[in-house]
Every structure is written in structure tokens, then in C-alpha cells.
């Protein structure tokens, strides 16, 4: 069997661990061979390949990024996209595709499967917002990076008089904010799922200062205010009521200063959260996803993707990957609220 | 309600996170009060207490160790142990006990429950060898520490001609060795569950050197050879066929040198694996265990302990904590073996 | 002898290590006693003290922040400030003061010394911009934190098409940017000492993209453009030609997008750089500063402060602490420029 | 100019940073070309080369190990060693050699220089025991790794009743033990330079337990007892009175148990200390060593090596590298002793 492998979408620690596991087990246990496609769907679309054997994956387990490159290319937005993919697969005598990516990449994979292309998926989202699996790799790394930043702010909080704001990733779901905020001991956590009341945030701020300790606010980049509650201009909110990209920390600074007179100091982690070496959990999960994905390809379980359920790796339909966004449920947020203020 | 809290057994990152969550939710949400018992079961046995309120738990979330102290004291090995515990609980008007500990501590808790003492348990084992729960806190921290050590050895392995051995914790179960070895990319992983064949280990060693790279062996402290296969004196094996405490790395050094002529260099991590600040996963899990344990006490769910199942925290009978050791199953070890050699 | 100790100015990893060393050596070797003054010069001014003995400093070596608190209070801006300090010192029978702080705190110390108050100084600036000493503690910690962030961005840079900007501390001197940028392998480093030419920055950006790799720009918060070169409104520059606080990263984003069409993604580390546990170098330096400061007090070397020269700790006049800002010299910046583009 | 580069001796974080700086500045600023020799002096001896240009050094700054490989090959122990080196240099039209290594590697370089071969040196010793330079790269990394291990032991020490022993590198000089022990807050530090009195060590152990805290002993692998003071058999000491390789931690365990009845638990870090990514200080120092080494080659400063003096990089005669071992002086050890017990 000859298997093509590609990675699509944003960077995520663990991608290389998946690739390595696929190639090692596929080669050493099953005797399959591999071809790497460059830059997500651009690879099969433009016949851009890279050799992919046991030597190519040596030493990549601890490394962030992806040796295959990535992109957001969508073959369904190209002329004859599917036909060109079929041509490339035929030209390389590829019997199966393993597509590693998020909602977009796997959405394409699901459609290609419907059109008869033999494909298996590996889910990837640093935001952990995929309902079909308990966790996705990369998430634990991002949470630890954010937590370590919060840890460092705590000593400063003891002797400072500024509000400390940490902006983390999470456009639509607040998992990184929730986990890092709880693990770091934040005083307030703001998520996209729960529009925040700026007056309550300011009340927590003042309550915290009353105990001679600066408040630490963890805010997901996609957190939104209750409609109409802010004093910033409306034009700064996007069509979904979201404040402009990467701006929520500075919006909070302005609003808090206006209402309490308190200065803030923001930490904006940005892409630091999605690069670098993965944690042990993410390497373990990514490696197991890779092992089980190549099993699925070997078994001809087309149209499925791997998923974590408890400590088991299951196969679920690819369609599940995109069916529903996994949001932070009310009862989990309530657990975090115990520690607010 | 007045609730007593104690921590027993070996050190484990996350103990303080449990205590903090119990006290914060118990106080702020339920209005309960708390008393800390010192050094595990020694506290109620000898009436050794420490004040335990919201102030006492401030800032302890990221800290290793336990503010309550710990011990391996067993009230069933003391004269009138249970009666003395009843006396202490009465003297402090304690309505419920939350016992945080491993097999021994929770075994005592289960017996006390059978005798009518209102107790709730929180499982703790850094070895992750408890079948009632998917994971225990502290384990993820230990795995990451071991993995980081292995990561550092890899660069040395590229230019060295010595066998690199890493001895990790795991007297009866090899979870730490398995996870850290897979996450670190070890060439051989030796577990207590699978007696090793020293000739096969040496074959992996030579195979690895053949690719101009020094082999990295991860070995659980409780790993055992196939009976009679070693050349070391029998007296160095204990009654269970285990080599003497902390000795497996040096036994391997001797055996490998004798059979292959290769020198080894050992890293023995020891207690470093069970101290220091917890990872985000362990803080999250420990915090949630604490929240749900105080819920269980509040609900009067005596004789239960909290357990992780997937992403849910469940209540299970305390007896389950000690019923069965969770060993590494054959099929998981087989996943790791893909990467051997 | 009875010695008062205080810490002033911004947070800096290593403050607790200084305090511990002063108290341990002063108590155990010399038999002196200590009193802690709270919140910098506010302590002696308002008679705010805290007990300071061997027990109080146990376990604080690895902890960020300062157990004494800090402030920017200046007794020379208060009515009768010096007289009130004399009163407090007399009330506590204090024979000597050890003042740990930056330019402001030590400037006050120098003036008090001139007025006959027996004081010894320990220099503290996370920015490392003090000409009297080779290094100050806290700096190495900040540099490592910034470097680790840059490290993580590198894997993302391999597969991304955005300019990655890292804003670090350094209002007047660019030491943190220079060291972290060189250690992290940045493609451009912008310092306050060298007004930058935005067109050259954009040229480096394009040159880097030409090798299929996203550029990483490290910028000190106080970096300034060549006058009149930016398209942002002039009102956003302060009186010194500095762009507004914490704004340089977003100014760069706007300018680069306007000139090259490239999107950027910023990481703003903020206070994360000045909190948390110190590196080994900073603990070593802070501990030695503390040991030598208490020696100086014991010897009655009033009006001096400790300073690192090579591997030696010397005593220098307090006045030197504030005489001249240590800026990044031309030849060191030239070393970094070798790696630009 | 065409310059050969080689790395000799044991692994040390920062080697790749030196190589990168040499090649980047040599190529981009001076227009020189490079050839890499494999595995130290084996490369020029056996004509084993590797291409070494700007592409080869991309991305290696943060990586441990050396892309050139290393060995302990000594051309003066080979027939016609020097003649064969001359032949290889001629065959590759090499005008200059940059040799990066420790006492042995630079000792060979000094002799080759005396015989007219144009060579420049870069000092490398993880043990920091070279008198010609304030610090060598790799040392700061090793100290931080050891310190982090000690940090983790501290929380365990609070609730444990075992002596905690950390064995670190340092065969002849105790710099790593001294710095990591001081930075980590060890209770006893044992160095090769100061034969230890086991009874005093036991007294510190008991003193520490008296304050309900387990003692942490940091011991250099080359630490030696006062002659005749131990109860272990004499045969376990080597010709220099050193206990056998890697054995000092277990010797201490045996002796302490015999004298105090206390159990110990050892952490032996081994090669973990010399692998992996370098700290910022080590990357900074290694990069500057590389820049100044290629300057020296460009200037024809044969027979010199680079050295750190304060914050300056100087050129010193190669002979100085091997003249004298830099031992821990009495007065520095006395600074550490303040914190013993």
C-alpha cells in the first residue's frame, strides 16, 4: 500500500509526532510506503510532494511545526480541484490519504471521501473545540504555556497596583482560557461562550485590590461583552459582535481605566502558544493518533477519523469532525467561577 | 458542616491544589468550615491539627508538597486507633472527613466508612496505577519531568558511544516509563509488567549503534528480568524477584557491559519526579477532584471517592480504590514497541 | 548591630534571594539582628515594619517578588521626609540601612548618606542599564523568558506567512531585546539606542520571506523610529519621540502592513518578564550581592553599593548607581546585526 | 580565505551556536568559505569532511550537540598524525583552522600551532574549570538543570524523612555543584577541591532534620572524603583517592545510613546536564565566541583563543587554555558555607 500524508491549517505542537508514528508503524509493521504532500491540500492539488520515509521522520518527535508544511488551500475553491487531486494520487500510485487538520481540512476530506477518494483523518485544533474527541493534541501545550505566564504574574501581583491581563487564543471557544485560568489561579476568566458584563469584571477587580493583591484576568481573544455595554466605539466590533482581532486586551484596558481609574498591563501571548515542543500529553496523544490512523488506513476504514474517548482511541465518521463546535458548558464554567474575585 | 481534611502517603504534585479547591468551594459556596489534620492519619490519631481557611490556602495552587504534611501512619496498627480518631473528630465537632491519598490511605478510609465514620476520598498515586480512574494527578508532572530528561539525552546520543539509561519511578506498574519513554522517543522501555530479556535489550542496543546513534533505555525502577537470565548474583534480587531498590539502572549497566562491551551512563531521577510545581493537567485534575470531593461531602455521599472518566468526574465506591492495581495492558505496550530499536 | 532592609521600585526576580542572604549571613556569621521596612521608602517614612529573621527568609530563595513589598515612594517629595526616617530608625534602634533598588531608590539612599544616615545599597534593574556593574539580577531571567518565547515562534515561522513581532521590556536601554534577540535568533532587533528606519525593517522582512521563512522581529518597548519616518499620527509619540507605552508592536504592525501588505502577529510579554522564579545566574548574583552588602554594613562602608566586575563583587560609591545609564554600545549592536535579515 | 572548523571532546550546549556564528560572520561579513571536519581531530586526520555553509547552520542555534560530531581522537597518538593533517588541509585548500574544544582538543591545537599550522581556538568545558576565561558556555545550562532538580526536591523535603542527595558533574572542579547548590538552596555542598569529613556531613543532616525538614546534599561526582574516614572498602577508591565513577551518591547513602540510621534517596543527573538546548547566557557567550574566533582567524591571530573577561571577549594565547585548572577558591566556598546546615 502507498499512503499520502498531508497537514493543513494553523500550526499546532504534535503534528510531527503524528507524521512520525504514521510512517514508523506503516513502514516497520505493515510494510507500506509513504509520500508527503506539501502544504495541506496544495500538495495533491499542485503535485507538490516530498519524500517521506523512516529517515525523514527521525528526530522530529519533539519538534513543533510540521515537516510537510501547511496551508489553508481548499480544493473546492479551485477549478477542477478534485480531478487534479485524483490525477496526483494516480501519478504517485497512492492508495490512501491520511489528512491531518482541523475543521476545514477534514471538511474537505469528508467531501473527498463522499466522492470515493480513500481518506482517513486525524483531528487537529489547538482550541480543543471539536466535539468528537475528548482532547486534541496541541491544546495541553498551549494551556501550559499560558499557565506559566500566569504563574509569573502572580509574584508581581503581590506588590503591584495594576490590573494584569493575559490574552490567550480561542476565537470561538474558551477552552484555553478556562484551563489555563483555572490552572494558573486567575481571578476572572472571560470566554467567547459567555458575553461578559464589564461592571462585574470591574467589581472583581476592586474586590481583589481590597485584599492588597493585583487581579489577574485571563481573556480569550474571542471573548465578547454583553451587547452595548462597552464605551468603545461600535465600529471596533466585528459582524459577530466580536471586538477586532487581538484587540480584546486593549479594549479591557481602556474600559477598566475608564470605570475604576486603575491602570492595566497586558500580556498578549499570540503565536507563542502554538509553536515549540509539545508536552508529554500532546506527544502521547499525537503519537497514538498516528498509530491508529495508519491502522485505519491499513484496514480500509475510509471516511473515518481517530478520536480520544477516555483513554481509548476510537474511529468516528469524518463528518463528526465538523458537525458541531465543542463549547465550554455552563457547569464547567461554574466550577471556575468558584475562584473568581 | 465542619469538615476535616488530611493527606497521606508519598509526595505528589497537586495535593495543595486539591486542598485549596475543597476549602474555597466549601467555604464560599456551601458555608462549611474546615480543620486540617497533620501528617495523614497521624493527625486524627494524635489530635494534631492546623487551622484551614481561605487565607491558609492562598497561593498554594502552584506549589508542590502538601501544606498539611503527610505520613504513612496506619490507625489499624495502633492500639484503639479507631476510637482515638472518633475522639478527635468529636473534639473538633467534625461532621465529615476528606482523605486524600493512595491505596493505603484510602484503604483505611474504606474501613473507617464501614465502621460508620463519614468519609469521602480523593485518589492520589503518582504511578497512575489505580483502576477506578483514568488518571491521577501528579502523574502528568512526573511524565513531563522524565520526558524532558530524555529530550536532553537525545542530542548527546547523536555524538556519543555510550548506552544512556534513564531510571524512572514505578515499583509495580510502568505507566511513567511507558508514557515518558513514548513521549521522549526511547529506544527501549522496560516495565515491571513485562519481565525483560536482557539479550533482546542488548540486540536493540547494537541495532541502534549500527545507525550511529546511542540507544536510550527508559526503565521503571520495578522492572524485572526474566527469571535466571542475569549474571548478577541472586542475592541482589528481592523476594518478588525485583532487583534491589534503585538498583535496576546499575544492574543494566553491568549486564550490558558484560555482554556487549558497551559502557553505559545512567540518569536516576528519584524524588525529582514527585516534587515541584504541577503541570496544567495535574492542577486542573486536582482542582476538579477537590471541587467534587467537597460536593460529595456536602451531599453526604460517604464511602465514595472521586474519579476521572473521560472528561467527567464521577463518584465511585472507596473500595474500588484498592480493589485492583491498574497495570499497563499488552496492547498499549505493543504500541510503544513499534518504536523500539 | 541592628540593620533595616527595604526593597524599592519595580518587581525583579532575585529580590528575595538578596534579602535571604543578608539575613542569613548577618545573623549566623555576624550576630546582627534585622528589621524589614515595608514597601520601599514608605516603610521608614511611615514606620511600617515587618519582623525579619532567619525563619522569615526560609524558602524564599526561588520565589519571585519581594517579601518586603515595594513602592516608588520618595521621601524627598514628602514633608519632613528625612526627619521622619531618622525618627523611625531611632525608634527601632537601627544602626544601618540596606536599600535594594534601582536608580530612584539608590538616588534617595545616596542623598540620605550625604545627610549622615548609614546606608549601603544593592543595585536592582531588570533592564541591566546600570554602568557601575557588569550585570544586575533579574536581567538573565527576563532574557531567558523572552528567548523561550522566540524559540516557540521559530517553528511557526517555518510554515507561516505572517511577520512575528515580540515586544520586550526596555524603556531607555535595549539590553533585553539585544540579548534575547541574539539568543533566540531574531531576524531584526530594534533598540531605544538606535532609532530604526522602517524601510530597512521592511527590507529585512521581505528578504526573510524570500527564503520561505517568516521574519521574527524583537523590539524593545522604548524603540523609536527615525524622526518623521512613520505614517502613524505624531500625537502617538511622546515628548521624547517615543511611541506611546506598550504601543510599539502595534505601530510596527500598522506600518509593515501599509508598506508591504504583510500581516503581523504580535507577542507582548509585559510583566511576565519580571515575575516568577529567578534563573540560576540571577540567584547566584543576588545571593552574592546580599552577602557582600551585609559585609559592607558590618564594615561600616556607608555610601557604597555592591557591584559585579567580572566574577568579583566590588564596593563602589552609591553615586555611581545613578551617574550614567548603561546603553548598548555600537560595537555590540554590530555583533547582532551580523544575523539580521 | 577557506577555514576548517571542528569540535572535540564531550557534549556541551552551545557548540552549534559557535559554529553558526563562525559561518554566518565569516561568510556574510568577510566572504570566507568553510569546510567542516567530522568528529574532532578525526576529521582532518582521516579526511572526513562535511559541507559547511550558511544553509547548513540554519536553525541550529537552539540545538544541543554538534552538527560536526565529536571525538577524543588525538593526532599525536597516531602515526604521522601531523603530516596527515597537513595533507588534509592542503587537499581542501584550508587556510585556517578553528578548533572548538576542551583541554585535550586545545592542547593539540597549541602543539599544531607550534608546528606552524594556522589555528585559532574556542574554549569549551561544561565544568567551567579553565582559568583563562571567566566562564565557558554550557556551564550555565548545566547549573540551571541541576538547580531545577534541587528546586523540585525542596517540596518533598518538607514532608519527608529521607536524606536527598543530588550528584552533579565535576570530576576535578566543583563549579557546577557550587553554583547549583547555592542557587538551589542546598544544605551541604561537597566538592573535589575540599575533601569532606563524613562526620560533619552527618552533623548537618541531623541538624536539618531537627528543624523538621529533610536535608539536601549536592555532591560533585569527583568529591572525595578525607583519607581513611569512610567505612567503605578501600578498593572502591581510585588511584587519586576518588571513589569509583558515578558512585559517590551511593557511597554517601551507605555511610549516612551506617552512621545516622537515616535512609537516603539519590538523584543522579548524568548526561542530562550536558545535552539539550542552551540557556540564553550560553547562547550569547557561544555566539560571541564564534564571532570573535572568526575575527581572529581573519586577522591571522594564530595560536590564540577567545576568552570572556567581564563582558569583553579577549584573545589569549592557546597555551593558557591548558596551563592551569581553575578550581573553586576558598573564599567562594566560604560564601556557600554560610547556608550549610
Automatic annotation (TrEMBL), chains A, B, C, D:
An annotated Gene Ontology molecular function: AMP binding
Description of activity control: Non-allosteric.
Binding residues for diphosphate: 10
PROSITE patterns: PHOSPHOFRUCTOKINASE
Gene3D superfamilies xrefs: 3.40.50.450, Phosphofructokinase domain
SUPFAM superfamilies given in the database record: Phosphofructokinase
Family, similarity comment: Belongs to the phosphofructokinase type A (PFKA) family. Mixed-substrate PFK group III subfamily.
InterPro entries listed in its UniProt record: ATP_PFK, ATP_PFK_prok-type, Phosphofructokinase_CS, Phosphofructokinase_dom, Phosphofructokinase_III, PKF_sf
Enzyme class at the top of the EC tree: transferase
Pathway info: Carbohydrate degradation; glycolysis; D-glyceraldehyde 3-phosphate and glycerone phosphate from D-glucose: step 3/4
Residues reported to bind Mg(2+): 103
Keywords of the record: Cytoplasm, Glycolysis, Kinase, Magnesium, Metal-binding, Transferase
Name of the protein in its database record: Pyrophosphate--fructose 6-phosphate 1-phosphotransferase
Site note Important for catalytic activity, residues: 124
Amino acid at each position: 500500500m502507498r499512503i499520502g500524508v498531508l497537514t493543513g491549517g494553523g500550526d499546532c505542537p504534535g503534528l510531527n509526532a503524528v507524521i512520525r508514528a504514521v510512517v514508523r508503524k506503516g513502514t516497520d509493521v505493515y510494510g507500506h510506503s509513504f509520500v508527503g504532500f506539501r502544504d495541506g491540500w496544495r500538495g495533491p492539488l499542485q503535485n507538490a510532494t516530498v519524500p517521506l520515509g523512516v529517515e525523514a521522520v527521525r528526530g522530529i518527535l519533539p519538534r513543533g511545526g510540521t515537516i510537510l508544511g501547511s496551508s489553508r488551500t481548499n480544493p473546492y475553491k479551485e477549478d477542477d480541484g478534485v480531478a487534479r487531486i485524483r490525477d496526483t494520487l494516480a501519478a504517485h500510485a497512492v492508495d490512501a490519504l491520511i489528512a491531518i487538520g482541523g475543521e476545514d481540512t477534514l471538511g474537505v476530506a469528508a467531501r473527498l471521501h463522499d466522492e470515493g477518494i480513500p481518506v482517513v483523518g486525524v483531528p487537529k485544533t489547538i482550541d480543543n473545540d471539536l466535539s468528537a474527541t475528548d482532547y486534541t493534541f496541541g491544546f495541553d501545550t498551549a494551556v501550559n504555556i499560558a499557565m506559566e505566564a500566569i504563574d509569573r504574574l502572580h509574584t508581581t501581583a503581590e506588590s503591584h497596583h495594576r490590573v494584569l491581563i493575559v490574552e490567550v487564543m480561542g476565537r470561538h471557544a474558551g477552552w484555553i482560557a478556562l484551563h489555563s485560568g483555572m490552572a494558573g489561579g486567575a481571578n476572572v476568566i472571560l470566554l467567547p461562550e459567555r458575553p461578559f458584563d464589564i461592571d462585574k469584571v470591574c467589581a472583581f477587580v476592586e474586590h481583589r485590590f481590597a485584599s492588597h493583591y493585583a487581579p489577574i484576568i485571563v481573556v480569550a481573544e474571542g471573548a465578547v461583552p454583553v451587547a452595548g455595554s462597552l464605551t468603545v466605539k461600535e465600529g471596533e466590533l466585528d459582524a459577530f459582535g466580536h471586538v477586532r482581532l487581538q484587540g480584546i486586551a486593549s479594549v479591557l484596558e481602556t474600559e477598566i481605566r475608564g470605570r475604576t481609574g486603575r491602570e492595566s498591563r497586558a500580556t498578549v501571548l499570540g503565536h507563542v502558544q502554538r509553536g515549540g515542543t509539545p508536552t508529554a500529553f500532546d506527544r502521547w496523544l499525537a503519537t497514538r493518533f498516528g498509530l491508529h490512523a495508519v491502522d485505519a488506513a491499513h484496514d480500509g476504514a475510509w471516511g473515518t477519523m481517530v478520536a480520544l474517548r477516555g483513554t481509548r482511541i476510537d474511529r468516528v465518521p469524518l463528518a463528526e469532525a465538523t458537525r458541531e463546535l465543542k463549547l465550554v458548558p455552563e457547569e464547567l464554567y461554574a466550577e471556575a467561577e468558584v475562584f473568581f474575585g
